[in-house]
Design a protein that fits this description.
CATH superfamily of the largest domain: P-loop containing nucleotide triphosphate hydrolases
CATH topology of the largest domain: Rossmann fold
Organism: Dyadobacter helix
Protein name: KAP NTPase domain-containing protein
Radius of gyration: 29 Å
Structural class: mainly alpha
Number of domains: 3
Pfam family, one: KAP_NTPase
Shape: flat
Distance between the termini: 57 Å
Strand content: 5-15%
InterPro entries: KAP_P-loop, NTPase_KAP_P-loop, P-loop_NTPase
Strand order of the largest sheet: 2-3-4-5-1-6
CATH class of the largest domain: Alpha Beta
Length: about 625
C-alpha cells in the first residue's frame, strides 16, 4: 500500500517546477510577490510545495537558512478556528517570536503585532466571541484587555459597567463603543504593515517565505479569510507567499463572498461576477503557475517508481537517485525498470517481476481514465493492491491481475459502462457477447457503428482506447472479477476518497434546500457543459447514490429533475436505475407537479411515468390525468 501524503521525494519529476518557483522567490527584484501553484485536486501541488521548502531551508529545523525564513502553513489545519485570518497572522508572528536567533531581536515588535491581531479579531468576529469574554475578564481583574477597551472601560463606573455587560444588551453596548469605521480599518491595516516591516528590518532577514497549502480543503469562508490575511502583506518588502490550491475552489469561494445578485439580465450578473473573481485573483496572485497533467510516459515512470518504492523499502533511495540523475539528461522518455536493472540485486528483481508485466499496459489507459492525476493513480493502486490480497485470501484460481486492472480503470473512469458490462456478463455466465462485439468493432475503428448500436459513451476516444488496450476481455469469464469488485456495484465511484472536493461541494450544493432559481443557475453555470466527462460522471453517480440512500428526500429528486429539464446527458438513465431499486412508496407524490412542469423542456421525461411502481402515490399522481 502507498501512503497518500505530500512528500519531498520527487517521484513525478516535479523538481523542475519547484526550481522555477524557488528561482522566482530568489529574485529580489520581484519581491514582494504572491505565487499561485494551481492544479486539480491530487495533481501534486503539496509535493511541489514540500520540495520548495526543502530547497530553501535544507535540513534546518528552524526554517532559517542563508537569510531566508520559511513558514509552512496548512490552511486546513486551522479550519476549526474562529478566525483563520488571525490564525495565519499569529502563526507568522509566532515564528519570529519563538525563533532562537530572531526572537530576542524583535521581542517588542512581536508583542505589538500580537496585540494588533487581537484587535483585528475583535473587529472582525463580533462581540459575543471576543469582546464580552474580554470585558468580563476586565471586571475580574484581568489586565490583558485590548488597550482601546481598557481606556473606554476605565471611564465607566464598575457597577454600571457590570450591569451593561449582562444579558442581551451587552452586544449593543459594546457595539456603541467600538465603531467599525472604514477609516479606522484602513489605519489599522497600514499600521500593521508598518509594524511588520519594522520587525523584518530589525530581524535583519533577507526574505520571509510563507507557503500556504490545502486552501482548497477549507470552507469558502475560511479560504477567503486566509486570502484576506495575505492581502495585508501585498506591499510589505522582503515577503513571498506561495499558495497551493485548486483554482476552481478558490474562484468559487471568491464568487460566493463577493458575488452580486439581481433581477436584471442573468448574463450581465454572471459576467460581472466573473470580472469580480478575476480582478480579485489578479490583484492577489502576481505569478499564477498551472501544473500540467502527467503524460503517458510520465505515468508509466510514476507507476514504476511507486512499485519500486513499495517493494524495495530503504533500498529505494538508490532508485530515486538514479531517476533524478536520468531526469537531468532526459525529461521525455520513460524511466522504467530497464533503467535500474544494473543497480538491482537478484532478489530485488524477483520482487518486481509481477509488477513489470502490467505497468506498460496500464499506463496509457490509466493516463486517459484517471486524467494523469497522481493522487488518483496512487489510490487506484492501493485499491488494486487490496483486491490482489483478497484474490489470494479467497484462493481464486486462474485469476489474471492485468484483467482486474483493466476493469478497474473503467470502474474509476466510467461507472455507467462498468455497470453495463456487469449486467451483460451476469446474464451470460460471465462471457458477454456485447463486449466481444465492441472489442471487435473498436479494433476496426468502427466508431459510428458502436455509437449507433450501443451508445455515444461507448464511442468516445477514451473508451475506444480502453477497448483496444491489452488484455482483451473477449471470451473471458468475468464473474470472479466482478465478485472481487462487488463492493462498488451499489455505490458511486470506487471509494469516495477519489472524489475531488470540487465535485463533493457541488453535489452538496445541488441537494441542499434552495430558494427561487438558485438550483437552475447552479446547473446552468456549474454543471451543464462546465465539467469534464469524468467529473460529470462522478457527479451523477454520487447523486444516484444519495437518492438510493434517501428516496424520501425531495431536494435530491429536484436536483435530478432540474438536470433533466436542462437536458444534461445520462440523467434519465441514472434516475431510472434508482427508481427501480428503491421503495417507491417513499418518493414524495408532490414531485408529480415538477415533472409536469418540465415536460415542454424535455419530452423524454415522460418515459419515467411508467417506471414508478403502480402501488405508489407518485405513480398515481403522475399518471392520474394520463
Amino acid at each position: 500500500m502507498w501512503a497518500d501524503n505530500e512528500t519531498s521525494d520527487d517521484l513525478l519529476g516535479f523538481k523542475v517546477h519547484a526550481d522555477l518557483i524557488v528561482d522566482v522567490i530568489n529574485d529580489n527584484d520581484v519581491l514582494p510577490v504572491t505565487i499561485g501553484v494551481f492544479g486539480d485536486w491530487g495533481s501534486g501541488k503539496s509535493s511541489i510545495l514540500k520540495i520548495v521548502e526543502k530547497e530553501l531551508i535544507g535540513d534546518d529545523k528552524d526554517g532559517f537558512k542563508d537569510g531566508t525564513l520559511v513558514l509552512y502553513f496548512n490552511g486546513w489545519v486551522f479550519e476549526g478556528y474562529d478566525d483563520a485570518k488571525a490564525a495565519l497572522l499569529e502563526s507568522i508572528i509566532e515564528k519570529f517570536a519563538k525563533h532562537k536567533k530572531l526572537g530576542p531581536k524583535v521581542k517588542n515588535e512581536t508583542v505589538k503585532l500580537f496585540k494588533s491581531v487581537k484587535w483585528m479579531r475583535l473587529m472582525g468576529l463580533g462581540f459575543k466571541k471576543i469582546a464580552i469574554p474580554a470585558a468580563s475578564a476586565y471586571l475580574t481583574g484581568g489586565v490583558s484587555l485590548i488597550p482601546y477597551l481598557l481606556n473606554e472601560f476605565s471611564q465607566i463606573d464598575p457597577t454600571e459597567l457590570a450591569n451593561k455587560l449582562k444579558g442581551d444588551e451587552a452586544e449593543s453596548f459594546l457595539s456603541s463603543i467600538i465603531k467599525k469605521d472604514e477609516a479606522d480599518e484602513i489605519t489599522m491595516v497600514r499600521e500593521f504593515r508598518d509594524d511588520f516591516k519594522k520587525m523584518l528590518d530589525k530581524s535583519k532577514i533577507e526574505k520571509l517565505v510563507v507557503i500556504i497549502d490545502d486552501l482548497d480543503r477549507c470552507t469558502p469562508d475560511r479560504l477567503i479569510e486566509n486570502l484576506e490575511a495575505i492581502k495585508l502583506f501585498l506591499n510589505v518588502d522582503k515577503t513571498a507567499f506561495v499558495i497551493g490550491a485548486d483554482p476552481r475552489i478558490v474562484r468559487h469561494a471568491i464568487e460566493l463572498r463577493y458575488k452580486t445578485d439581481g433581477i436584471e439580465n442573468s448574463s450581465d450578473v454572471e459576467s460581472r461576477n466573473e470580472r469580480i473573481v478575476s480582478d480579485y485573483l489578479e490583484k492577489l496572485i502576481q505569478v499564477p503557475y498551472y501544473l500540467p497533467k502527467l503524460t503517458d510516459n510520465e505515468v508509466e515512470t510514476y507507476l514504476s517508481l511507486l512499485f519500486c518504492q513499495k517493494e524495495l523499502g530503504s533500498d529505494f533511495n538508490k532508485v530515486l537517485e538514479a531517476f533524478c540523475t536520468a531526469r537531468e539528461n532526459n525529461r521525455y522518455d520513460v524511466f522504467g525498470l530497464g533503467d535500474i536493472d544494473s543497480i538491482l540485486k537478484p532478489e530485488e528483481k524477483s520482487k518486481l517481476t509481477n509488477s513489470v508485466s502490467i505497468i506498460a499496459s496500464l499506463a496509457p489507459i490509466i493516463t486517459e481514465g484517471l486524467k494523469g492525476n497522481p493522487r488518483q493513480i496512487k489510490r487506484f493502486l492501493n485499491t488494486y493492491s487490496l483486491r490482489d490480497r483478497l484474490v489470494r485470501v479467497a484462493k481464486i484460481a486462474d485469476f489474471k491481475m492485468d484483467i482486474l486492472a483493466k476493469l478497474m480503470v473503467l470502474e474509476y473512469s466510467s461507472q455507467s459502462l462498468f455497470r453495463q458490462i456487469y449486467e451483460w456478463q451476469s446474464s451470460q455466465k460471465g462471457e458477454s457477447k456485447e463486449l466481444k462485439e465492441l472489442e471487435s468493432l473498436a479494433s476496426k475503428n468502427s466508431i459510428e457503428i458502436i455509437k449507433e448500436k450501443y451508445s455515444a459513451d461507448w464511442g468516445t476516444d477514451k473508451t475506444i482506447k480502453w477497448l483496444n488496450a491489452e488484455p482483451k476481455l473477449t471470451d473471458i469469464d468475468l464473474r470472479d472479477y466482478y465478485w472481487i469488485t462487488r463492493d462498488q456495484l451499489t455505490t458511486s465511484i470506487s471509494g469516495s476518497s477519489l472524489v475531488s472536493p470540487h465535485i463533493r461541494s457541488l453535489v452538496k450544493k445541488l441537494i441542499e434546500p434552495v430558494a427561487g432559481t438558485a438550483l437552475t443557475r447552479t446547473v446552468a453555470n456549474e454543471v451543464k457543459d462546465k465539467l469534464s466527462e469524468g467529473d460529470y460522471e462522478t457527479l451523477i453517480s454520487l447523486l444516484e447514490k444519495e437518492l438510493t440512500k434517501t428516496p424520501e428526500k425531495t431536494e435530491i429528486h429536484e436536483a435530478f429533475i432540474e438536470l433533466m429539464s436542462q437536458k444534461c446527458p445520462d440523467v434519465i438513465d441514472a434516475y431510472t436505475r434508482v427508481i427501480n431499486k428503491v421503495d417507491n412508496k417513499k418518493i414524495p407524490f408532490s414531485l408529480a407537479q415538477n415533472f409536469k412542469l418540465i415536460e415542454s423542456k424535455n419530452v423524454e421525461v415522460k418515459k419515467l411515468y411508467k417506471v414508478f411502481k403502480k402501488d405508489s402515490q407518485i405513480f398515481n399522481a403522475i399518471n392520474g390525468d394520463n
